Amino acid sequence: MTQTIEQKSTLYDRDLNLWLEEAIAKLKVGDFKNLDVENLIEELEGLAGRDRREIESRLTRLIEHILKH
Q1: Do 12 and 39 contact (CB within 8 A), yes or no?
Q2: Where are the alpha helices (DSSP H) in the chain?
Q3: C-beta contacts of 63-66 below 8 A and 24+ residues apart
Q4: Cα 51 to Cα 49: distance, rounded to the nearest angstrom
Q5: What are the C-alpha distances in Å from 54 to residues 22, 30, 65?
Q6: Digits of tens for pLDDT over the chain (69 positions)?
Q7: Backbone phi, then psi, for 34, in 5-degree steps?
Q8: CA-to-CA distance for 38 and 46, rounded, in angstroms?
Q9: Rounded-to-integer distance, Cα 20 and Cα 61, Å
Q10: pTM across the whole model
Q11: Could you tell me which residues come within 8 angstroms of residue 43 by beta carbon, excluding any fewer than 6 positions away?
């Protein structure tokens, strides 16, 4: 007997850009009931972390340039 493993395949997993467009559209019309909150939180946390790292990197580079002069 052969068993197939059923994988969850959500729009988030298949096409991130389309998922983002749909999430934005739902937010704009206030359709919070159908919003993919779990993945939205994950994306927002990722953006916040990326922004913190970017700011830290740019500040470090700026300080290095100031110290060289």
Answers
A1: yes
A2: 11-14, 16-29, 37-68
A3: none
A4: 5
A5: 27, 31, 17
A6: 555 555 678 999 999 999 999 999 999 999 999 999 999 999 999 999 999 999 999 999 999 999 998
A7: -100, 15
A8: 13
A9: 32
A10: 0.66
A11: 20
